Amino acid sequence: MAVPEAPAPGGGVPAVRPGSARLVALDVIRVAVVVMVIVHHAAQPYGPTGGEWPVTDTARSDWFRPFYSVNAAVGLGLLFLLAGYLCGPSHDRKGSRRFLRERWSRLGVPLVVFALVANLPLVLAGEQPRSAGEFVGFLYREAWSPLYLHLWFVGHLLLYSLLYVAWRRLAGRPPRSWPAPGHRTILAFAVGLIVVTWVIRWWYSVDEWVPLLWIVPVEPARLPQYLGLFAVGAVAYRGDWLRTLPSGTGRWWLGVGLAAAAGMVAVQTLAPAGWRYNELADGGAGWQSSVRSTLEGFIGVGLAVGVPVVVRDLVRRPLRLVSALAVTSYAAYILHVYLVVPIQYALTGPALSPFVKFGIVAVLGVALSFGAAHLSRRVPGVRRLLGTAVTGRGASGQTSACVARTPDSPGTGPAAAAPPSLP
């Protein structure tokens, strides 16, 4: 159960401060998922990804297919879960207006700058449109994805922050809290998510994007998971679930997630050709799509429950390297595509195995992305844009999707401040 709410400084919204110390595990998960995203994009030219990528390579293998599918089923879902969880304390401390103002500063400004300064020139050079109208029409048909690239995620966080504020206004003060869920509740959520996902895929297949609210690219086939886990994270903070969820429950659902991941690998690599599984599993009302939706649902929910609990139980003290990487994880996410793609281009010539090329790109991509993010702290304008600036209190800069530090217990001061959370 969450501890009673204490009055916020200045008479604002009461600030819930569950638990006795910040969750060090959040840093571990944050860094691990950003590394997973970089590694996922490092593999894009070397297998049947299904989506679009600026680099193609003749060195390819179908064994990357389940790698893509499993990663996509869990990676960003975990980040949305953490973002929802961390919105609570940030909003409690700042109130709605300041919360949204800082969301725009830390999410909206980098999104606009990189879309217009970095991405727009690349798209213009590649498309060479004959008129502005033709170019805008092209961007709209592509759901604005060429302008956003991987930063669609940042756009979604900005939108979800608006939804969070609306929920807080409707919920009143203080919002209701629920105790940590049991197996039945988690199973019900997973089944509901699977059914909604499968039904949406009757009309929108995996990797099909549309412009949400005319300006935000969205992949409807995965939107239920992203919104669902963000909402679960927001509710989890009110009930202090990341601290109070039983270890046994976490381990059990971790097993479910891993078993579903193994099932995804098996069905995508071993299914008989007559099943046409990989051909039809991306969407539609057929059994192939229902199987994929089911496996993805249990992967996403199982690991979203299991990973935080298991990491929480294993990591009880701050890890210096992880803390240092967490400070720059948001910047690493923003920068990684601009570093990974040139490496992939450079490797299109050598006649190497796709797995060797993937390994080279993955290692260099992770190292250069976090390295560049760390160096950005020395450049005043860039460090502010990327959120790697050091604050006046000596803590790391507030770069998070929703909060600069994880919840502390009453009385813990700046010394307990956590590194910024990731998008």
Question: Which tags fit this structure?
Answer:
two-stranded antiparallel sheet, disordered N terminus
Supply the helix-strand structural class: mainly alpha
Q: Between the first and last Cα atoms, what is the distance in angstroms?
A: 27 Å
Q: Largest sheet, if any? A: 2 strands, antiparallel
Percent of residues in β-strands = under 5%
Question: Which sequence of strands runs across the widest sheet?
Answer: 1-2
Mean pLDDT: 87
Q: Helix fraction?
A: 55-70%
C-alpha geometry: globular
Query: So how many helices?
Result: 15
Helix and strand element order: HHHHHHEEHHHHHHHHH
Overview of the molecule:
The chain has 423 residues and is mainly alpha-helical. The chain has 15 helices and two strands. It has helices at 25-42, 64-127, 132-141, 145-148, 152-171, 183-200, 223-239, 241-244, 247-270, 277-280, 287-314, 320-327, 329-346, 354-375, 380-386; strands at 210-212, 216-218. Strands 1-2 form a two-stranded antiparallel sheet. Helix 1 (25-42) packs across helix 2 (64-127). Mean pLDDT is 87; it is low at 1-21, 392-401 and 403-423.
Secondary-structure map:
Layout: H1 25-42, H2 64-127, H3 132-141, H4 145-148, H5 152-171, H6 183-200, E1 210-212, E2 216-218, H7 223-239, H8 241-244, H9 247-270, H10 277-280, H11 287-314, H12 320-327, H13 329-346, H14 354-375, H15 380-386
Antiparallel strand pairs: 1-2
Helix pairs in contact: 1-2, 1-11, 1-12, 1-13, 1-14, 2-5, 2-7, 2-9, 2-11, 6-11, 9-11, 13-14
In short:
The protein is mainly alpha-helical and 423 residues long. Helix content is 63%, strand content 1%.
